[in-house]
Automatic annotation (TrEMBL):
Protein name: FAD:protein FMN transferase
Source species: Sulfitobacter mediterraneus
Lineage, highest ranks first: Bacteria, Pseudomonadati, Pseudomonadota, Alphaproteobacteria, Rhodobacterales
Cofactor binding note of this UniProt entry: Magnesium. Can also use manganese.
Family of this protein: Belongs to the ApbE family.
Lipoprotein is among the record's keywords: yes
Length: 317
């Protein structure tokens, strides 16, 4: 059974540009596509047509290049090679940079962010969301970020049968890379959505970008926020399920689906990659754990929606 885990995350993230921005005074140039199994989009503000077309072209090329590194479902991707062989020699520098970020978030979240969960996720997908207890135990034994070795010469696993997914952070990382690419080409006002959202400068109405936060792709945004020169990532544990059964977010400690603490967790941070990883892990945390976790970060904001309309807002400046 082939299932795009990231499609669940991207759909449940539910980011949408607020209505009315396209009709504002400044000209916009929009582009939409698909990467890592999810819709991606870009909106540029205040640029002439030729310049915008050039920027869209280089964005697409960079996106395709990075997708060939991090895709779970392209057989020739760097990640697929690593998972198939248990090692990857001379890994690309982007992969090493991202794994460094993974390690930092893994430590900050006491192991709740753990990309070695892919073997367990595959077990759930192959069993239509209801694997046997023995299957869960066997897959869970292959989880452990401490079993991943990486350096300039090689990435390898200590245990046979381990697999890595970067779907809980790669979209944020790619968003950061595209944002940096645009900024290096003189762009000051844009919104970049490569699975997670980065808001640069102002929208076409010369106000901060308004981003909608939803729990499901087929529902209107439950809340909107204003962003400028920051990123936001959302995880909705119950927004989508594996084969209609289990939450798409699994707990690496227990091997079980995410508890129903929150219907939606959004994290705002200057880095989309950091926001992406933290939103995934925070979905598995209660409020006190979130408070403790974010003490290690600067400029982070969490908006968590719980049952019966309960909402939690945490901020570290």
């Amino acid at each position: 059974m082939t299932v795009s885990r990231r499609r669940f995350i991207a759909i449940t993230a539910g980011f949408a540009l607020a209505s009315g921005q396209a009709s504002a005074a400044q000209a916009t140039a929009d582009w939409q596509g698909v990467a890592l199994g999810a819709r991606v989009q870009l909106r540029l503000v205040g640029l002439d047509q030729d310049h915008a077309a050039h920027l869209i072209d280089i964005t697409r090329n960079e996106l395709l290049r990075l997708e060939k590194l991090f895709s779970l479902y392209q057989p020739g991707s760097a990640l697929s090679q690593l998972n198939a062989e248990g090692r990857l020699q001379a890994p690309p520098p982007e992969m090493l940079e991202l794994l460094g970020q993974v390690g930092a978030i893994h430590r900050a979240t006491d192991g709740l962010f753990d990309p070695t969960i892919q073997t367990l996720w595959t077990a759930y997908a192959n069993a239509n969301g209801t694997p046997t207890p023995d299957t869960i135990v066997a897959a869970h034994a292959k989880i452990g970020w401490e079993k991943v070795r990486f350096g300039a010469g090689e990435i390898s696993f200590d245990q046979e049968g381990m697999q890595l997914t970067l779907n809980g952070i790669a979209q944020g990382y790619i968003t950061d890379r595209i944002t940096a690419l645009l900024r290096s080409n003189g762009v000051t006002d844009a919104v970049v959505d490569m699975g997670e959202v980065s808001a640069m400068g102002q929208g076409p109405d010369q106000k901060p970008w308004r981003i909608g936060l939803a729990e499901k792709s087929d529902q209107p945004a439950a809340q909107s926020i204003q962003l400028s020169n920051k990123s936001v990532a959302t995880s909705a544990p119950q927004g989508m399920t594996i084969a209609g059964q289990a939450s798409h977010i699994l707990d690496p400690r227990t091997g079980n689906p995410a508890p129903q603490y929150w219907s939606r967790v959004s994290v705002i941070h200057p880095s989309a990659a950091i926001a992406d990883g933290l939103s995934t892990a925070a979905s598995l945390m209660q409020a006190d754990q979130m408070r403790s976790c974010i003490k290690g970060f600067a400029c982070v904001d969490i908006i968590a929606a719980g049952p019966e309309g309960r909402q939690l807002r945490l901020r570290v400046t």
